[in-house]
Amino acid sequence: MGVQDVQDHVLVQCDFEIFGQVQGCGFTKHCRDNCLALGIKGWVKNSKQGTIMGKMQGAKGDVGKMVDWLSKTGSPGCKIDKSEFTNWGTLSRFAFTDFAIRF
């Protein structure tokens, strides 16, 4: 296991907000499904401002994959204008037990 492999397994967290035409296209469901498949914990929800908001916690490499998905791909039919990732930090353990859609 090399240095990069170890760094990819460090637990990190971040908050995210996705702007654009991202509501009404299954974005939260696809986000949850992708996070569960990667072992990422946290939550996602539609905001009153028409954005998607959430928090992710997971291995640095897996969170990086979700950052890429949230920034460039998203759910089918969505149009992502901008993605913001804030409150980055490292963790010693998860604060969540799963990844949920909040309402």
Account of the 3D structure:
The chain is α+β, with helices and mostly antiparallel strands and 103 residues long. The chain has a single domain (11-101), classed as Alpha-Beta Plaits (2-Layer Sandwich), CATH 3.30.70. It has three helices and five strands, in the order αβαββαββ. It has helices spanning 3-8, 27-38, 60-73, and strands spanning 11-21, 41-46, 52-59, 79-90, 99-101. It has a five-stranded mixed sheet, with helices on one face. A hairpin with a 5-residue loop joins strand 2 and strand 3 (52-59). Helix 2 packs antiparallel against helix 3 (60-73). The model has no long low-confidence stretch (mean pLDDT 94).
